[in-house]
Amino acid sequence: MAHIAIFDMDGTLIDSGLDITLSINHVRRQRYSLEPLSVRTVVDIINAPSRNLAKMFYGTEAYEHEARALFEAHYYDQCIQNVSSYEGIGTLLENLKRQDFALGVATNAPSIFARRMLSHLELEPYFDLILGADNVDLPKPHPQIIQKHLDHHGYRSGTDHAWMIGDNTKDMDAAKNAGITGIFACWGFSSEGEGDYCAAEPLELLRIMNHKG
Question: I need a surface site. Which of 62, 102, 137, 165 has the fewest CB within 10 A?
């Protein structure tokens, strides 16, 4: 019987809000001559259930290639300047590995940044599979990225147990669409959300997942 815990990254495993904001503001300033946004504003926009990020960040209907390239070039160095894991994440992952959980990351961020940040924080070795938006055709809330994790571990519905842990409605919808349990992480970018379960802090996941929900 397999036990598979799949984590979102930003706002769930790591607090990357400041670095994301600094890179967005770099693009706003350099390309669009716009005033900077606050971290709270950026995080709220990212976590809004329905939003056009290009319009809300840069005032364009779609991401311009130049803006995307400018962001990625800046964020590659910026993303490890202020990032930190949430309190209790390291202990949580250590406990889950001791209990033979298979651990993975399913993020809508590009995998190059996911691996860079998780490696910087010495979290990468805990995970069997780290997938980003560039590894799938359709990002969350589509279940494709979760299904890749399940397939990797030979998941058997009705026999094995799998959870998606995230701080966004897209994470919970992806879990539902994949037919697995969704746990909303209330310690990260969003303090309130709906899932099959809600966890106030990382170590609460041990209690929830040991009940095999």
Answer: 137
pTM over 0.90: yes
DSSP state of 76: H
Instruction: Determine if residue 11 is left, alpha or beta; phi over 0 gives left, psi from -120 to 50 gives alpha, anything else beta.
Output: left
Return d(Cα 6, Cα 169) in angstroms, integer.
15
> What does the alpha-carbon distance between residue 79 and residue 76 come to, in Å, rounded to a whole number?
6
- Helical packing angle, 65-78 and 17-32, nearest 10°: 140
Residue type, 193: G
Please give the structure tokens belonging to residue 133. Answer: 């938006």
Low-confidence ranges of the chain (pLDDT < 50): 213
DSSP state, 35?
Answer: P
Are 58 and 28 in contact by the 8 Å Cβ rule? The answer is: yes
Are 146 and 121 a contacting pair, CB within 8 Å? no
Q: How far apart are CA 173 and CA 95, in angstroms?
A: 27
Q: Decide if 155 contacts 162 (C-beta within 8 A).
A: yes
Longest dimension (CA), the chain: 55
Span 125-164, pLDDT tens digits: 999 999 999 999 999 999 999 999 999 999 999 999 999 9
